[in-house]
Structures are given as C-alpha cells and as structure tokens.
Amino acid sequence: MYNVHSMKAEEFICHDEVMASLEYADANKDNIELIDSIISKAKERKGLSHREASVLLACDIPEKVQELYELAEQIKKDFYGNRIVMFAPLYLSNYCVNGCVYCPYHIKNRHMARKKLTQEEVAREVTALQDMGHKRLAIEAGEDPVNNPIEYILECIDTIYKVKHKNGAIRRVNVNIAATTEENYRKLKDAGIGTYILFQETYHKESYEKLHPTGPKHDYAYHTEAMDRAMNAGIDDVGLGVLFGLELYRYEYCALLMHAEHLEAVFGVGPHTISVPRIKHADDIDPSAFDNAISDEIFCKIAALIRIAVPYTGMIISTRESEAVRENIIRLGVSQISGGSRTSVGGYCEDERPHDTEQFDVSDTRSLDDVVNWLMRIGYIPSFCTACYREGRTGDRFMSLCKSGQIQNCCHPNALMTLREYLNDYASDDTKRIGNELIKKELANISNGKVREICRDNLIKIDEGMRDFRF
Ligand code: SAM
User: Fold this and answer.
1) How many Å lie between the centroid of ligand 1 and the Cα of residue 241?
2) Could you give the CA distance from residue 244 to residue 202 in angstroms, rounded to a whole number?
3) At 408, is the pLDDT very low, low, confident or very high (cuts 50, 70, 90)?
4) Fewer Cβ close by (within 10 Å): the C or N end of the chain?
5) E strand intervals along 310-380
6) Side-chain-facing half-sphere of 362: CA atoms under 13 Å
7) Cβ atoms < 10 Å from Cβ of 135
8) CB count in 10 Å sphere of residue 120
9) Strand ranges for 98-224 from DSSP E
10) Nearest C-alpha neighbor of 438 from the set 463, 458, 416
C-alpha cells in the first residue's frame, strides 16, 4: 500500500499508486477546469503533488502546454536568476561487477579495457581539470568491491581536494557511486563530499530487475532506499535521476516526484538536484534497442514540469545532450550543466578525446571555454560557485534560504566573483572580454547596496591576485 512515510521502496514508490495517478492523469488530460486549477496552484511556486503534475504531463492542449513552458521559464528566473553552475564528471574506474544492460561497463563486456586511476593519475586528471577552470567535480565509478572499495573512493576524494595547481582548486566533490551502506555514506560525509548522486535508472520494479539482471545493483529495494541511508548518515544533499529511455516516461516522472515527496516527508528536505540523462550510444550499447526513447519535445516538457513541480530542486543536464537541446532545456529550468566533459577513465590528460573506456558518447564536445562563452552570449552567467556547502548551507538550511528568496543575495555576487576568477585565470581573450562586460552589467543588478559594494571590492582583490571570496 502507498505510504509516503514508509521506509520500504515498494511502499513509497508504490506501483499501484503510480498506475492510479497515470489513470487519473489520462482521465483528466482534457479537463480544462482542473488543469487551470493545477496551473494556478503551480503559480504559487510551492510545487505540485505527483498526481497534479502527472495531469499536466498528460495534457497536450497546445495553449496549456505553452502556458506551462512560460511558467517554467518564469519560475526558473525567479529562483535561479540567469546563473548556471558549471561542473565536470571525473571517471575514476570502469571496473564493474554489475550487469546493467544499458551501460558498457557491464561485467560481460570483455573487450572494453578496464582501468582504474592511481592516485598519481587522479592528481594529473584534477590538474588538467583545474587548468580548464573547473572548481566542482562529480566523481564516477563502476561498482566493484574489490577494485573500487569505499577506501579507494575516499582516497581519491582526499587526493582531489589536496591538488592545488596554480590558482586552481576543486572546492566541491559530488559523488556518483553505486548504492552502499549507511556506514559508507557516513564515511563519504566525513570526507567532505557535496551531493551524493544516484540515478534510479528506472522506478519500475519489474523492468528494473530485467535491466539489472546480475550483480548487487539487481536489488531494487536496496537501490531505491539508498537515499534514505545516505540521509540517515548525515548527507544533506542528495541528487535523484532517471535514465530516460528505459521505461515509459510518464511512469518515471510520476515515481520521481513520489521519491522527492518521500524524502521531504521523512527528512523534511527534498532532493538537492534532479538529473535527466537519456540513453546514449556507447561501446556495445545501441540506444535503439530500448523501446522507450523520448523525443526532444517530450524531454523539454519533462524538464519544464520538473521545474514547476519541485521549484527548489536544482536540475542538471550533462553533455549527453547537444548544444541545441541544452539551450532549450536550460531556459526551461536547468540550473547546473557540465562542460568540457570526458567520460573515459583518464580522459582529461589525453590531447585527443579517448573512446576506449568511454561510458557513453558525448554530444556536446565543446571545450569549457566555448561553453562558458556560449552561455554568456545566450544570456546566462556561468557560475563556478561552491559557497553554499562550504558555508554549511546544505539540506534544510539551503532550502529555507532558497524559499525565502534570500539566496539571491549570495548566489548572484558569488557567481560574478567566481566568474571573474575563471576569466582572469583560464579564459580566452574573447570570453574574457564578454565576461568582464557581463560582470559590469550584472554588478549593477545586485539590489542590496552593501552586498554590491563588498562584491565590487572583492572583484578588485581578485584582479590583484586574491582568490576564493564568498557570501
Ligand atoms: N555505477 C554507479 C551506479 O551504479 O550508480 C555510478 C553511476 S554511472 C558511472 C553514471 C550513470 O550513467 C548511471 O547511473 C547511468 O544512469 C548512466 N549511464 C549508463 N549507461 C549509459 C548510457 N549508455 N547512456 C547514457 N547514460 C548512461
């Protein structure tokens, strides 16, 4: 039976509740009165329930869909302004004991070269990432208790934080590793991680078991309950995600929101981020073998409706998507993007993009400088900010600040200061020129006079060589 407070996966992601919600959504997809009332509620910017949001996803009345897009765009502007936080993935190891049928790291893939970075190699990769200008990483690894035990991951995190090359530093390490024990989550928390990210892949239990036929990841409940263990262990910021293409998107969208509702009900704080990856071609993986691929249009609709349903949750889009799709979806609600990414183990130290250990093909292959330049040209402020978690603004503290609107007084100046660091240390001449003009213009948009003055002073100090200012 459905119970949002239950700690059992099959009760907080109750299949019958998802099915009933989808039926309700189907029955009401042309019910203008209901749709209008849900849109009015969404305009209060306090979010929607999984049932309400599912009705909007099912609705395909063009004027209503247009209204939803406009609302998503407005909510995005209100909560996240025009800032986009930048990050890069860092692949530590592709050793994996699981049998995930969509991932080339699956255990049966005997021809893929297996590689695990030594600590010296981690330091070299991090140096290369710092030289690009990155300050925030998401570490990625296959699941292999022998080759990639938690001690290995912890050692890598320690190495990453210790590398200080020129003016560079990695100030936030987010972690995307397989579901693990509460004890291991406590160790990750103690190692100073930012967000713990784990994609559910699919919330549909039967499909999940087929798509993960072997290995520890086969256990649906263990995987689905991972965020509860992580939050019990004190990790405040967790990142959800669905791998779109595996199952019916409407099922996933509804269940994803049920997961967010569950975390909010049990821990008083919902997910920090939601990622929206789609299956891509990779080594022995052919995306057309999966029946549930979604069009770019549906993909954008899902993103807009995530923005509307959980306004305080950040949304992440990776380089799996092309420049064109990224431009559309950023406008509709994305707050974080990766740039200059390589999805192979050790890829950042190579001149040419290596393909031998790649987890998936990257669509947006531009350099970080190109992405930063492009973002500014299309009206955004690329931000390398990591202040919230370093100031202890995580979990409910972050959410309450966000809900009060006060976060703008931190995020906006922090974005400008970290962008200036990037421009001075790493940018091409053209990016630098556009960036400095942007900072000048955006400085005037800081409404609090005192904050504006401090920010202006700090920008001068950054030009003089000082680093790492934050509100
Ligand atoms: N092994 C860990 C786990 O099981 O959660 C870490 C995650 S893996 C390195 C990162 C994510 O990449 C997976 O959770 C999956 O959603 C995604 N992924 C795997 N194969 C993919 C593919 N062919 N195309 C796009 N994304 C893929």
Assistant:
1) 10
2) 8
3) confident
4) N
5) 314-317, 336-338
6) 21
7) 23
8) 9
9) 136-141, 172-176, 196-197
10) 416
For residue 253, give the 3-state DSSP assignment. Answer: helix
- Of the pLDDT bands very low, low, confident and very high (cuts 50, 70, 90), residue 345 is very high
Q: Is residue 402 pLDDT above 80, yes or no?
A: no
Task: Give the C-alpha separation, 59 to 71, whole Å.
Answer: 15
Identity at 434, one-letter amino acid code: I
Residue 103 sits at φ, ψ, to 5 deg, of -115, 130
DSSP string for 28-78:
TTT-HHHHHHHHHHHHTTS---HHHHHHHHH---HHHHHHHHHHHHHHHHH
Q: Which parts of 98-180 fold into alpha helices (H)? A: 119-132, 150-162
pLDDT of residue 4: 98
Q: Which of 137, 227, 243, 355 to mutate to test the pocket of ligand 1 (most atoms within 8 A of CB)?
A: 243
Q: Are 449 and 391 within 8 A, CB to CB?
A: no
What number of CA atoms fall less than 13 Å from residue 60's CA on the CB side?
A: 4
**From atom 19 of ligand 1, which residue's Cα is the shortest distance away?**
103
The values of phi and psi at residue 432, to 5°, are -65, -45
Q: Is the pTM of this model over 0.90?
A: yes
Pocket of ligand 1 (CB under 6 A): 102-103, 140, 142-143, 176-178, 198-199, 201, 217, 243, 277, 279-280, 282, 285, 320, 359-360
- Residue with CA nearest ligand 1 atom 4: 178
**Residue 89 · residue 341 · CB < 8 Å:** yes
Please name the amino acid found at residue 8: K
- The whole-angstrom separation of Cα 231 and Cα 265 is 13
Distances (CA, A) of 363 to 132, 330, 442, 461: 19, 16, 31, 38
Strand, helix or coil for residue 366? coil
367: CB partners within 8 A, 6+ apart:
132, 339, 340
The predicted pLDDT at position 275 comes to 98
Q: Is residue 290 predicted with pLDDT exceeding 80?
A: yes
249-284 in b/e form (b: 16+ CB < 10 A) is bbbbbbbbbbbbbbbbebbebbbbbbbbbbbbebbe
The residue assigned the tokens 């690329």 is: 382
Closest C-alpha among 14, 41, 7, 17 to residue 265: 7
Rounded to the nearest 5°, which phi and psi values hold at 316? -120, 135
